[in-house]
Specification:
This protein has 486 residues and is mainly beta. Helices cover 15% and strands 38% of the residues. Helix 1 packs parallel to helix 3, helix 3 crosses helix 4 and helix 4 packs antiparallel against helix 5.
């Protein structure tokens, strides 16, 4: 079987360019100002993926051509075309670093087609466009929260610079992924127009915390609050020590609440954490008393282990670690406590009803997506089905002359904050019936630049990821199905 390299990247345009080995990553955040709203982009380029030329001063430097545009109905509303130069270095082989670029684009409230094109100036390479829908919404008379800018560092500013906001020099952290070497999560955001709903002289509460992405359960060890006075603009700069945060998908949440604890406004930002060495504590998950509940009636430890295993697609990071670890050795009482607590957290009024509804979906996943080598909930299609529900459209193409058999699933709505998201599954052996998730534009899912080339593994080598451009052949409708699933 040919190896397919996949890349995880996440909201909001975490963007990865690998055309001809150019490696870059981009995120953005939107803010309001007296001059109007603006979008700030944060781009990093890996120094060892660009070509260096020797300058007259004897030093080496690389350059990247960049074009960024904001369009509405194909009309350009804002753009910048510029060269991003690397630092000058004495030895072009000592290039194991990354250089960062930050830009601001003044745009009005609205929805835009954001596009970035990049190419190495010193290579004869055609740039590949990457696009994302960007919405800017800061009403003048209603409370709002800016985008959340993740930070590498922040210091009190002595002079105003391009990285200065509200008296701080902010160095952006350009990723939504935190490996184990990163021990803190720092961030900056702004709250606007709270004075429109709370009288002057009163205070309100700003809370910021980390929650599990899959089920929105707040992590009490990563939560804080502060009381602030009412004013038109309230900057928030804070950080969490995440040395003990276990591997998983999370949201960083900002909320403003009045004195009655009523929510005024909120904002979430997705991030991923990889921390295999973190000590996982399951105390909160085993604190539920399963006595006289439906879980106590489950007396077969093998059946209970299977039931718990089937919840993997909808489990948070720490819950998945339980399934991978203590589930295998826990006694019956421990598993009953865990299982009851799992459904109590999701449906506190009727936990058994929540389980029975999910159990029915597991059965459907088995019928529709179970393969000769995996149970339905263990397959990629089954996992997506159980996590997100049935797609609004499901396009199947098993007889394409050049592509592997594949499916494209389209969701009109995905959760509470995602729209128009798609998933591409494929298999090299239709007889096995086990389809692998190849590409998606949903938050936290596998994203493969040049996924169509990987799909066309029958005629192309999918391992060569820098060759992201494919030539369309007779009978290939994958691009059409991606743009307009049926």
């Amino acid at each position: 079987m040919k190896k397919i390299t996949v890349l995880l990247f996440v909201f909001l345009l975490p963007f990865l360019s690998e055309a001809k080995n150019l490696w870059a990553f981009l995120t953005y955040a939107s803010f309001s100002s007296p001059q109007g709203p603006y979008v700030e982009t944060y781009l990093t380029v890996a120094g060892n993926t660009v070509k260096y030329l020797k300058k007259e001063n004897g030093k080496y430097q690389a350059s990247v051509n960049i074009l960024i545009t904001f369009k509405q109905k194909n009309v350009i509303k804002a753009f910048k075309k510029y060269e991003l130069n690397s630092p000058e270095i004495d030895d072009s082989s000592k290039n194991d670093y990354q250089f960062i670029d930050e830009q601001r684009f003044q745009v009005a409230n609205g929805t835009y087609d954001f596009e970035i094109q990049m190419s190495d100036k010193n290579k004869d390479v055609k740039p590949q466009p990457f696009t994302q829908v960007v919405t800017v919404d800061f009403p003048a008379d209603k409370p709002a929260v800016s985008g959340i800018e993740l930070l590498q560092s922040y210091t009190k500013s002595e002079t105003v610079k391009t990285i200065t906001k509200c008296g701080f020099d902010l160095v952006p952290y350009v990723y939504n992924f935190y490996p184990s070497v990163e021990k803190k999560l720092s961030f900056y955001c702004e709250l606007y127009n709270i004075d429109k709903v709370i009288p002057a002289g009163q205070k309100y509460v700003v809370s910021y915390y980390v929650e599990a992405f899959e089920n929105n359960i707040r992590l009490s060890d990563y939560a804080n609050i502060k009381k602030v006075d009412v004013k038109p603009l309230e900057p928030l700069i804070a950080e969490f020590n995440i040395a003990g945060l276990s591997t998983g998908n999370y949201n960083l949440v900002i909320e403003a609440r009045n004195q009655k604890n009523e929510l005024i406004v909120s904002r979430k930002s997705f991030f991923q954490r990889s921390n295999p060495g973190a000590a996982v504590v399951y105390t909160d998950f085993l604190a539920f008393n399963a006595k006289n509940t439906f879980a106590e009636n489950m007396v077969s430890i093998d059946t209970l282990r299977e039931y718990i295993s089937s919840t993997y697609p909808i489990s948070s990071g720490i819950e998945k670690s339980f399934i991978k670890g203590p589930l295998k050795t826990g006694d019956l009482k421990t598993l009953q406590q865990y299982f009851y607590g799992f459904w109590q957290r999701r449906n506190s009024q009727e936990p058994e009803k929540g389980w029975l509804a999910y159990k029915e979906q597991v059965h459907k996943a088995q019928i529709n997506f179970g393969s000769k080598i995996k149970k339905g909930y263990q397959t990629d299609r089954g996992r997506v089905y159980l996590q997100y529900g049935a797609p609004n459209t499901r396009t199947t193409q098993y007889n394409d002359p050049n592509n592997y058999p594949y499916e494209i699933w389209h969701y009109y709505k995905l959760g509470n904050n995602q729209s128009n998201k798609k998933f591409v599954f494929f298999t090299e052996d239709l007889a096995l019936g086990d389809f692998t998730l190849l590409h998606s534009d949903a938050i936290g899912e596998v994203n493969t630049p040049g996924w169509q080339r990987s799909l066309r593994g029958r005629v192309n080598d999918p391992g060569v990821l820098q060759e992201t451009e494919t030539v369309r052949s007779w009978g290939d409708f994958s691009d059409d199905y991606w743009k307009l699933p049926n």
